[in-house]
Design goal:
20% strand, 279 residues, single chain, Alpha/beta knot, 2 domains, seven-stranded parallel sheet, 60s Ribosomal Protein L30, Chain: A, alpha/beta, elongated, five-stranded mixed sheet
């Protein structure tokens, strides 16, 4: 049986991990990033919803605790049977008071972050990689991680200015897949991209530039290793990132449409790069 404990006071110190979970508040008090030099603690993160919780339970991240509205326990009793961390049961009103907003799903969990792998080790174990430059929208980031899991992308590389993949909204939008797709930070940026090419990856820069190659013409699925660089909506990739790619590629669209949402563009690019053996 799980370690069930009742919580009826929003000020109970046992649920301190869950206090003030609005994304704006989390950004103000961001935990120590994984792998930051000199840090002893990798920090913590929160997942929301039953789907993300189930993925957390089978992920490499260490579970700290679970906080549930009492009515949500029944559907999760099987998955929680072997959990050693405390499972706190509270009323919906207490959960809302703790988090600072209405937790409609009635399911939260806290886990410890892990130190990020170095770029070299991540590349050595991958054949398809997504490289993201300065993506700061947490929902777009979550969508891209979900696409990566679905379409055979082995890892994600982030520029230092990217949003945190483990923010609650990113985890939720990814349907928990951000917990299973490994990622690392490329620093310095963009000079660190040289290591990707040196590891044998064809670096493809996604851009709406009409002078870029049609991504369908590149037959990316036939290449042994492919890394796809995607930038922010609006400014797109920086000149430095494009200059370090082996080839710029574009997704051909109808006249009058200048770009796609970066999550949609990522899905198309990932599918184009899927190796024949993965289809």
């Amino acid at each position: 049986m799980p370690n069930l404990q009742a919580v009826d006071d929003p000020a109970d110190p046992r649920v301190a991990d869950y206090v003030g979970l609005k994304d704006a508040e989390l950004r103000r008090r961001r935990e120590v990033p994984s792998g930051e030099p000199g840090s002893e603690e990798p920090g913590r993160f929160i997942v929301e919803g039953a789907v993300a919780l189930r993925r957390l339970l089978v992920s490499p991240y260490r579970l700290r605790s679970v906080l549930l509205a009492a009515k949500r326990y029944g559907p999760l009793v099987g998955e929680l049977a072997g959990v050693e961390a405390p499972v706190y049961l509270a009323s919906q009103e207490v959960m809302n008071a703790v988090a600072g907003f209405n937790i409609h799903r009635g399911v939260l969990a806290a886990a410890d972050r892990r130190r990020l792998p170095d770029v070299a080790s991540l590349l050595a174990a991958s054949r398809r990689v997504a490289v993201l430059e300065d993506l700061v929208d947490h929902e777009n980031l979550g969508v891209i991680f979900r696409n990566a899991a679905a379409l055979g992308v082995d890892a994600v590389l982030l520029s230092p200015a990217c949003a945190d993949p483990l923010y609650r909204r990113s985890v939720r939008v990814s349907m928990g897949h951000v917990l299973g797709v490994p990622y690392a930070v490329v620093d310095p940026w963009p000079d660190g991209l040289a290591a990707v090419g040196a590891a044998g990856f064809l670096l493809v820069a996604l851009t709406p530039d009409p002078a870029a190659r049609d991504i369908r013409e590149l037959d990316l699925g036939r290449h042994d290793r492919v890394a796809m660089i995607l930038g922010t909506e609006g400014p797109g990739l920086s000149p430095g990132a494009i200059a370090r790619a082996a080839v710029p590629a574009r997704i051909v669209m109808r006249s009058g449409v200048d770009s796609l949402n970066v999550g949609s563009a990522a899905a198309i690019a990932f599918h184009a790069a899927t190796a024949p053996t993965d289809r």
